[in-house]
Amino acid sequence: MPIKIALAGNPNSGKTTLFNALTGSNQYVGNWPGVTIEKKEGKLRSDTYRDVTIVDLPGIYSLSPYTLEEVVARDYLTGENPDAIINIVDGSNMERNLYLTTQLAELGIPMVIAVNMMDVVEKNGDKINLDKLSEKLGCPVVGISALKRSGIADAAEKAVELAQNKVPMVPRHRFSENIEQALAGIEELLHGKVDEKQMRWTAIKVFERDIKVMERMAFDDALKSRIEDIVSQCENELDDDSESIITNERYLYIASIIKDCYKRKSNVKMTTSDKIDRVLTNRWLALPIFALVMFCVYFISVTTVGTWVTDWTNDVLFGEIIPPAVEGFLSSIGTADWLQSLILDGIVGGVGAVLGFVPQMLVLFLFLAILEDCGYMARVAFIMDRIFRKFGLSGKSFIPILIGSGCGVPGIMASRTIENERDRRMTITVTTFIPCGAKLPIIALISGALFGGAWWVAPSAYFAGIIAIICSGIILKKTKLFSGDPAPFVMELPPYHRPLAGNVLRSMWERAWSFIRKAGTVILLCTIVIWFASNFGIVDGQFTMVEDLDDGFLAKLGSIIAPIFAPLGWGFWEAAVASLTGLVAKESVVGTLGVLYGFAEVAEDGQEIWGLLAASFTALSAYSFLLFNLLCAPCFAAIGAIRREMNSGKWTIFAVGYQTLFAYVVALSVYQLGSLFAGNGFSAGTVVAILAVAFFLYLLLKPSNERKLKAATVSANI
Amino acid sequence: MEVLKEVACGRTVTVKKVNGQGAVRRRIMDMGITKGTEIYVRKVAPLGDPIEVTVRGYELSLRKADAEMIEVE
């Protein structure tokens, strides 16, 4: 009989370590349906039990209806009926950890409690009476150390036994008399409407006026008002609201358990973690240390090691080794030219473009995993929160954006360290505004060709990127998509500890692999489409492979869409096509312009075509071209990463569409208003630009819904 | 009436009431800040916000705007 066991517990309770120890390498990583939260499943490593699946629930503190992780966890527990729960509890932080336990116990699902970090508890000289704890809570309790792998098999065995015998969990905890009376009243009303096993859980949730449960139960008005009578009577008796009543009682109950089962060695001395924290989040040292850490991460993963390996992969592996070998093989078996070109330029080139990012990503993810595992990442949010929350981002958004200045792909993937889904989506949407390494050749080209290599062009590009991020944050924060209750920043700062090699390497590889798998397919497909469009066309009424890029479908498409860019000052097809090929890789923009202006190959900054470009562009239209290409949709690799991290096609289209629209409006406004100031007179375009700028300012400055809401509640309170 | 936001670093206070509503309030209570809990204010972030407190034996950070909703004595 297949058995499903859910693993539940607080963040930082050692849940990941336990999950890895229970399942070994036998894991499947995916997403919970419709959300960006990771879902992990694995087969239990065991000689006795064959078909036992462990489902790793998101790390949560409670089963409230307010955060996505909690809703995902409780929907799974109440909807999918796992056969048992292993509740991992951090023994060195029992009080808060048991809070979740009291809620899990009410679900009626067989449960084992694994008290983790027993080694730490013993080392501190504290004592936990596990037998007494088991008796008080009404379920088996096992002491474990996930780190030292002790007690783990015992915990798993107990859970499987409970699941096989179907021993339902009966919570021992009783609330105070008034509450129990109210709950009994509610249970009576719910009789026949709810599965008996979930009766107590549902009654408590109804008592708390839990929005999600109330919605699902869809009571009629008469029943609703009877329930409301019971709840408000109890609230009057206890002079508090029902949510607080329940929460308070739970913590009082836990305090009584702790008093009986936990013997603390009385001396309160500073732990090593406290000492480290005093330096790392020190008022004066915190920011310099943060800057130093970020510099090291960036320097090693982007500037040096990461880039060396990536360059080697791109230039040597996918430049000098694989293509000649494949070419030789294809020629030797006499493959047709077009097929050879498809395989070499389309597929090998496309796969190479994807895999080239992987080494850099591995280096970066290694650092992120270390920072996360040792506890510093939580402090990054603590230090940077003040700045970033103004723009609707999280303190942790700093890292994706910083990494994004090297390459947008790992930058977007780095957003996974942000817990809040809204902050994460916002960060993913704005990360590629910052110019990445591949956009530097475009900057060099424009700066060299039109501005005589002026010093201010490159800094202005970064400045534009930063402004775009800030403005987008402010604007998007007010839209419906990103509005709602502000994400509570009530965050645990876990004790520092040495990162675990196993966890770090696993996390690094999982992230890189999810990119290779998901993004790989998208990018491969897109590169083939672009390859086809640029190499095939209709010449003299015949569908054929073209000699010149000028005749290809892509060039035709470029001529068709070129008028769209006319208001931006560069409505000729060469520029339009170059922007299109930027989707494959941003540095291709320079190469394509080179080919279109008649050079087989140009230097990275396109020196050969500076003169020709100067003739086609004006300084203003060139700058508008630059801005558009910096801010618009990123390359396919980055779009693939966006798709992977958003876990939703709709959100991907939104992000890419928003970026392109934003880029268009900015380039339009700069070009049109620039022309006006240059004395080129007033035109329809100028009017559009002025309207665009006015609308933009309106969006930027209008009060947010949140503030309106707050103002309304404040006045209501007065 | 004093709120947590105004408590100086290094002081220990007791929670009287958690004001506010919805997700943030529930989260504050879920994390163990309930009536009668002792809170030790550890430090303020380098940029002046958020603050770090010790509650029920662990470290918690919260924004001043949220700390304003917690009445203490």
What does this protein look like?
- Chain B: GO terms for molecular function: transition metal ion binding.
- Chain B: Pfam families: FeoA (PF04023).
- The complex is a heterodimer of chains A (718) and B (73).
- Chain A is α/β, with parallel strands linked by helices and 718 residues long.
- Chain A is 62% helix and 8% strand.
- Chain A has four domains: 3-165, P-loop containing nucleotide triphosphate hydrolases (Rossmann fold, 3-Layer(aba) Sandwich), CATH 3.40.50; 177-263, Helix Hairpins; 286-435 and 475-510, no CATH class; 524-706, no CATH class.
- Chain A is built from 32 helices and twelve strands.
- Chain B is an alpha+beta fold.
- Chain B has a single domain (2-72), classed as SH3 type barrels.
- Chain B contains two helices and six strands; from the N terminus they run E-E-H-E-E-E-H-E.
- Chain B is globular and about 30 Å long.
- Chain B starts with a strand and ends with a strand.
- In chain B, 52% of the residues are buried.
- Chains A and B meet through helix 3, helix 11, helix 17 and strand 10 of A and helix 1 and strand 5 of B.
